[in-house]
Amino acid sequence: MTSKAQRATPDPKGFGKVAVLMGGKSAEREISLLSGGGVLKALQSKGVDAHAFDPAERDLSELKKEGFQRCFIALHGRFGEDGTVQGALELLGIPYTGSGVMASAIAIDKVMTKRVWLAEGIPTPRYTLLRRGAYQREQVLKIPDDLGLPLIVKPAREGSSIGVAKVQGYSEMQGAVDAAAALDADVLCEQFIAGDEVTCPILGTGDGARALPVIRIVAPEGNYDYQNKYFTDDTKYLVPCGLPPGEEAAIQELVVKAYRVLGCRGWGRIDVMIDGRTRQPSLLEINTSPGMTGHSLVPMSARATGISYEDLCLLLLADATLDQPAQGAAQP
């Protein structure tokens, strides 16, 4: 993977004028600004004509008017990772990084992702979906009977662990559901799996998709929340992951399959829990526009294979494309 990726590092001058989309309107705006700032600095350091562009402050139509030829999507969450920006860029005819419209729309929705994975025989924790308005006390209190305790409650379409709660008892259920429902009308209640928490990035598209090294995450008291993800140094990230022989390779094979069946392209990262008793992996979710902050995991995994942050940004930008390129148009 390393030698192939490094050989393919492109000429930065060939990209033309590049917009780094960052900020946006989602609950992950703060993280997106950190990611985008890092990407912008990296691309500029490599000689790319890159500029910051915040869709929350400027209309996307300005991309075409100002002559941008590619977009690096450093947006996270809704209106950036869910197919909406991707669809707009398709209409504008401006190639962009990461997954296309359909894959992005499915992947942002944790329940739809689970349904696709389960249909393909890919393991994911058992779950219950509470739809808009179905938060009555009697419904909520039945969930631990089905999934057991502890369990996880989260918004169906948010990232960065925003709104995620680990529920230890029946008395905590309603508060956790209400907090998640404040962020998303659909609330996902998920079986908790005790064991190792790992994540695995993927680069590429289709048959060319390849997994990077698995990262094992060791968070304070097992609580890998928003604060411990981005704003403390207490969480430990182990690369090499130190898993038993064969486990890392099996997880890499599984996540590449899961990435391909969703139709993802360019890059992504899949979070996985490994049952401490059975050692069986279960896939939690996929990120199709992963973080690129100083604490982010895709750059960390890439670095373990010899790919620098700056070169990673170039490689991702080189893969920018469209779902439906204009007839006769040259593909990047």
TrEMBL record:
SUPFAM superfamilies, per database record: Glutathione synthetase ATP-binding domain-like, PreATP-grasp domain
Enzyme class: ligase
Cellular compartments per GO CC: cytosol
Transmembrane segments: none
Compartments where located: Cytoplasm
Cofactor: Mg(2+); Mn(2+)
Cofactor binding notes: Binds 2 magnesium or manganese ions per subunit.
Gene Ontology MF term list: ATP binding; D-alanine-D-alanine ligase activity; metal ion binding
Keyword entries, A-Z: ATP-binding, Cell shape, Cell wall biogenesis/degradation, Cytoplasm, Ligase, Magnesium, Manganese, Metal-binding, Nucleotide-binding, Peptidoglycan synthesis
Positions of Mg(2+) 1 binding: 271, 285
InterPro entries in alphabetical order: ATP-grasp (IPR011761), ATP_grasp_subdomain_1 (IPR013815), D-Ala_lig_Van_CS (IPR000291), D_ala_D_ala (IPR005905), Dala_Dala_lig_C (IPR011095), Dala_Dala_lig_N (IPR011127), PreATP-grasp_dom_sf (IPR016185)
One Gene Ontology biological process: regulation of cell shape
Pathway assigned in UniProt: Cell wall biogenesis; peptidoglycan biosynthesis
Family: Belongs to the D-alanine--D-alanine ligase family.
NCBIfam families documented for this protein: D_ala_D_alaTIGR (TIGR01205), PRK01372.1 (NF002378)
PANTHER family xref list: D-ALANINE--D-ALANINE LIGASE, D-ALANINE--D-ALANINE LIGASE B
Protein name (Swiss-Prot/TrEMBL): D-alanine--D-alanine ligase
